[in-house]
Amino acid sequence: MLKELLRPTGLFLSSIRISPLYLMLKFKLFVKDENALLFKQDIANYQSSFFDLLFMRKELKELLYFRLGYISAPFKLICGSYPLYFDNKQCKIGGGIKMEHPHGTHINAERIGINLSIKHNVTIGVNKGKRPTIGNKIGFVSPERRYEAPTVARPPQM
What we know:
The protein has helices at about 1-5, 10-30, 35-45, 50-55, 60-70, 75-80; strands at about 85, 90-95, 100, 105, 110, 115-120, 125, 135, 145-150, 150-155. The chain is α/β, with parallel strands linked by helices. Residues about 1-10 have low confidence and may be disordered.
């Protein structure tokens, strides 16, 4: 019985793998890093703890890697990654991004405003050498629509 209690479970091993990300984010929040504060806005859309979110919503791990920048490279090896691609590392993405199963999504924009909602298999890409700019509060970016420069997506007018 004691042997079974001491046997590492998948949840235990996963929490060990995610702990370095948690510590790095806490440090970045402590020094008031702008990108860490944006990630805090991103996860405010969800009603779960940090660990639950990174277990259940693996795309948030990839967003955290993007927010942390070059320092996150070793964490990808330790904590794993997800097929969500930020092709333009200099892209300015506002806080509050919400993603619903963004498997196979490529984001290559010049700038993205706050409160963007993205679905799966979306490509936000380059057209004629220019990247698109997406405004604030875009409720739904779906794979049925193409977003290319110089298009500027704006929220619908009421």
